[in-house]
Amino acid sequence: MEITFRQLIRGLSIGLFTNTLMMAQSTQKSILNHHIMENHSIHYRNTQINGLNLFYREAGPSDAPTILLLHGYPTSSHMFRNLIPILSTKYHVIAPDLPGFGYSDAPDHQQFSYTFDNLANTMQAFVDKLGMKRFAVYIFDYGAPVGLRLAMNNPEKITGIISQNGNAYEEGLSKEWNPIQKYWKDPSENNRLALKDFVSKEATYFQYHHGVSDVSLIAPEAYTLDQKFLDRSGNIEIQLDLVKDYRTNVALYPKFHEYFRKHQPKLLLVWGNKDPYFLPEGAEAYKKDIPNARLKFYNTGHFALETHVMEIGTEILEFMKTLPQ
Fold first, then answer.
1. I want to staple 138 with a disulfide (CB 3.0 to 4.6 A). Which of 15, 162, 189, 313 is the partner?
2. In angstroms, what CA-CA distances link 24 with 18, 27, 31, 119, 250?
């Protein structure tokens, strides 16, 4: 069939328009993907707080509701490495390393007071410097007494609390605390020395693996990185100071309970039910003071994020939808 010159021009025009449209769509998609990558990338930052360098991870849209993730012993914000990408799809996530942990400064224990009051004061200064007006807080292990102090002192800032094996009740303390409680009652040098194995590689390995049904899910870099920091010169004294001061957290439990009853914060409990340190009874006890708390147990140990990060991440995303902005 003979093609006229006009038909040829029309075909070329349509083809050119189609190619231009496809290129524009491709460019738009590329820009969108870049924006998404920017929002979901984890940024590794440092800030100066009271003369200390504090390291923190930040991800997600800066104008979205904020979640503050507070790690426990003996880890750092590294424990949230798999959770942050899940939460930052919709939320602004900030995860600092406490003084003496991870990549934050760890001054000698004679130059810095390693107490939970002081850790909380440092986190208060961190929150203030970053201009965090409203946020949900994720508390785990040592992060619980730090985060609950923040909550008591700033009830107007707290939109909700996520407690992952973050204890606040005496019934949650297992028999593993017996040697530590002995040190609380008699803080002698002998009782202090008896706890030095608390920071050993065997103890760290135990914390990660006890109660885990499939240990192949435990990433070796998690506990080996923790041990690298624990093995730093002078760190054992830092950790023993904090172990000694943990008794102040137990003494504060009634104040925490008073805060719960008065303010009734939205609460999600996600708990490894084989935790050797913080028993399921400690999770259930929260409901005495916050009856509407949501409680979810997982068949795992202390570091539940190592084995159940997708399940816990999904629970948090659903919980965050219910919080005030």
1. 162
2. 10, 5, 11, 52, 61
Give the model's confidence band at 248: pLDDT under 50 very low, under 70 low, under 90 confident, else very high.
very high
Task: Check pLDDT > 90 for residue 194.
Answer: yes
DSSP 46: E
Q: Which residues are catalytic?
A: 302
Q: Does domain 39-320 have CATH number 3.40.50.1820?
A: yes
DSSP string computed for 178-193? HHHHHHHH---HHHHH
Residue 26 has pLDDT above 60, yes or no: no
- Measured CA to CA, the distance from residue 56 to residue 122 in angstroms comes to 13
Q: In this structure, what DSSP letter does residue 298 have? A: E
User: In 3D, which of 268, 260, 310, 49 has the Cα closest to residue 138?
Assistant: 268
Give the three-state DSSP class for 53: strand
